[in-house]
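Fig. S4 source data, part A: sequence.
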Amino acid sequence: MRTKKKPRVVPEPRRRIKMRTFADWNEPLPGSMEMDLVAHCGGVNRGSYVHSLVLTDIASGWTEAAPIVVREGTLVVETLERIRMGLPFALRALDVDNGSEFVNNRLIEYCLGHGIELTRSRPYRKNDQAWIEQKNGAVVRKLLGYRRFEGLAAARAITRLYGASRLFVNFFQPSFKLAAKQRDGAKVANAIIHRRRPASVSGRRRVSRWPPRASCARLPPTSIRLKLLEEMRAVQAYLAAADGETPPPATSEPPNLAAFVSSLSSAWHAGEIRPTFSVEAKPR
């Protein structure tokens, strides 16, 4: 006699969070963000190691990242609160994957208390979080690679690195936005139909109708020539030395950032020259 399978019990926090697919955003206003964790475990996924909590805005591409010492729901909420307070717009919606560090009552109650719409992607469908997956590779992995980082000292150094890269990526690094899609039979091909000069996130913000936010006054003006590259390279050298590798030699003269920033308007013609660029291969 064939026995009936017991119905699968869906955990209560998962039932409270509705699902959202990649096609459900429908041109949202700034403040609708995807969130993910990037593991810095090296080639061995065991023990305690640092993670990067990464958020990216669907409308503008504004990206934030911060390290957490261990993968734990309370630390996720505390780090999210620090990131939220520094955003140049109000956090309206948050889309996460199905990990237990996100799908829990603690994050649900936090979002309810701050008027944030919380959704989750479909299990095993990475394309539902295509925006954050792209930033995980283009920003986090290009800056930190695939090494293993552990402890508070590494987390503090990564915090310093993200402090400089946050300004560079969002204020000075140009990027393209998808203009349209065209269908070729059963396939939908992404294509930039109207080719246009790329703008930084802050550049797109100046020409768009972003809602006002008090924290916008704290944004550093783009005319300030910050020594961001020098700071980023110094922290990367420290992390490489701590990992047992030989850090790159220090330059005798600081980089000429004024010349670098003035070249950004035409730098995209030469292809991939980002300071976050790395030739380090992903471990197999």
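Fig. S4 source data, part B ends here. The chain is about 35% helix and 15% strand.
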